[in-house]
Structure formats: C-alpha cells, structure tokens
Amino acid sequence: MSTSVATGIEQARKGVGVAGAGPRSGGPGAKRRGPSRGAATLVYFALPSLILLLLINLYPLLYAGMQSLRQGNLLALGPWIGFQNYVNVLTAGWFWDGALFTLIFTVVGVFGSWVIGLLFALLLRTKIPAGPAFKVLLLLPWVVPTVVSATAWNWLMATPQSPVQILIFAMTGHYVYFLADPTLAKITVCLFKVWISFPFMMMMMGSALASVDTNVYEAAKVDGASAWQTFRSITMPLISRSTFISWILMTIWCVNDFPTIFLLTGGGPANATSTLIVTAYRTVFQNFDTGSGTAIAFLMTAVLVVVSVVLYRQIRKVNIE
Fold it and tell me: How confident is the model at residue 23, as a pLDDT?
C-alpha cells in the first residue's frame, strides 16, 4: 500500500470525507453536563423493578450455590461436603471431554456464523435481484424454532430412508451415518449450529455496515484504495464494536445451547457430542447428582464471565477518532 493511499485511508477513518473534515464538537472548551434530574427520576422509577428482578434471580442462584457445596439430590440438599463436588468434576475425564467439545462447538458456532453472516451482509448491501425476498429467506433458519429445524435435519440424513442418505447411496453405493459416527456427529452438530445462527450475525453486521458513513468510502476511493484495502482498513475497524458484541452474545448462546445438541443427537453417539450443558443436565436429572451438576454450571458461568470481560475490554479499547 502506497504512502498516499495509507494516509488517505487513515483520514477517511477519522471522518475526512471528499469535501474535507467537518466541524468537530466537544472541544476542550465545551462544557460537560452532569446527570440531569430527569435521569435521576427515571432511576427512581426503575428501582423497584430492578430490586424485584434481583430478588427473583438471586434466590435460585444462592440455592444452586448451596447445592454445589452439598451431596444432595432433587429432593434434599444433603450433607455439607464443601468444594468436593468441584474437585470431583475437575478430576473427571468425562468433564474435560465435554469441555473440549464445548470449546470446539463454541468456536465453530461463533466464528463460522460470523463469517457467513458478514459475507451475506456485504452481499445484501449490493444491488441484487429480489434483495428483500432473499433477505427474508436467509432469516428463516433463525426464525424457525430449533425443534423444527432439528427434526428436519434428522429427517434429511439420520436414517437410510433419508433423502441425503438415498442420494449418497446412489452415488457411492454405501450409506454415511452422519449422526451415528462420533466424528461425523460432531461435524454435523457444529454445521447445524452455524446454520441456525448465521442470520443473527447477518443482522448484526448489516446494522453495523448501515451505520458507516458513505463519505468514508468515497474518500478512500478517491485516494486510490482497493476493495480489500477498504475492507481491511475501514470496514472492519468501523464495525469492530458490533463484532465484539456479537461474539459475546454468540459465545454465551453456544455454551448454554441445550436444545441444539439434545434434539439432534441427545449428546451421542457414545457421549461424543455432549457439551457441558448437556452433561450438567444428565448429571442432575438422570444421575440425580445435583451437587456435581450445579458445580458444572458454576464452572461454565465462571468461564463465560472471564470471556465476556475479555471481549468487553476489547470493545472499550476500540477508539475510532
């Protein structure tokens, strides 16, 4: 990239359009306004609802915390054993198997849906035939309930009578059991997650792209920037805040995604697709070990808090002048 092009892109990111920079507000001499009395009034009105929500959510949280420190079941808390449930969980091989697949499932779900969603968002910004109708069709995987999508995918590929299996048998002479083989089941579950999640990313990225001032692109074009240079040096930095927010939300949804796994494979075959949330469900409601199950849930929560804080700090570091 030449020096003039790089300088022009930098000016474009700072808001210098084709006609030059406009007046900047909020200079050193500008007066800062403190919180208005109206804002304080709104806080007072919202305070009772906030207290009620806190109490509704605080009691189950504290009770679950007590369960994680006891050896109980669904009917009784049981005797106090301290952090032994956490020790048992962290030293169990099945926990780390579930944690590994949870990591794979989350990484593929977040970045796979983000890449596809961003590509479709960029495509929809161009003039394509029947653009609104095409956008509605792209939203269908997200709009349709997960139970319907999972049932459809099972019908398409789960049995020898499924259309995909019939097509594969006609081409190769043998069946491929996508949900019976551990490796293929993992791949299928991850692809299904990307399938039902990319419309959300498409909407997030589409909104972020729509908020970018077109004068920025015009300035970069005048300075001779290529399409790739414009995308890398202007588009990506300008939509980075929305990108990090979408990553945080999708990470939380992927880690806590129970219906996708349970409806498609039930965690099988041979627990190959059991994420931590499915493992916690089985531990509590099938093995009746509430202490270990809630310990898994709290460990998941701790990891999600750490990941969210890291990504949130990245949002705060984004500073587009």
Answer: 47
Mean pLDDT, 10 residues at a time, over the chain (321 residues)? 55 49 47 63 84 84 90 87 93 93 95 94 83 84 90 86 87 86 92 94 91 81 81 86 91 92 89 93 91 93 90 74 43
Please give the Cα distance from 32 to 10 (Å, whole number): 29
Q: How far is CA 71 from CA 99, 242, 267, 277, 294, in A?
A: 23, 43, 25, 20, 11
What the chain holds in terms of domains, given with CATH numbers, is 83-317 (1.10.3720.10)
Q: What residues contact 36, with CB distance under 8 A and at least 6 apart? A: none
Helices within the chain (DSSP H only): 3-13, 37-68, 84-90, 93-107, 113-124, 131-143, 146-157, 163-172, 182-210, 214-222, 227-230, 236-238, 240-255, 259-264, 276-285, 290-317
Q: Which residue has the tokens 């007072």?
A: 44
Q: Which two tokens stand for residue 273?
A: 């697709």
- Taking Cα atoms as reference points, which of 222, 227, 23, 4 lies closest to residue 125? 227
pLDDT of residue 14: 54
- The predicted structure's pLDDT at residue 218: 82
Contact 114, 243 (CB under 8 A): yes
Peptide bond before 60: cis, by omega within 30 degrees of 0? no
Give the pTM.
Answer: 0.81
Torsion of CA 22, 28, 29, 31, to 10 degrees: 100
Rounded to the nearest 10 degrees, what angle do helices 240-255 and 113-124 cross at?
A: 140
Q: What pLDDT sits at residue 4?
A: 54
Distance CA(82)–CA(84), nearest Å, equals: 6
Amino acid at 320: I
With a CB cutoff of 8 Å and minimum separation 6, the contacts of 268 are: 185, 274
Smallest Cα–Cα separation from 227: which of 97, 110, 126? 126
Residue 276 · residue 102 · CB < 8 Å: yes
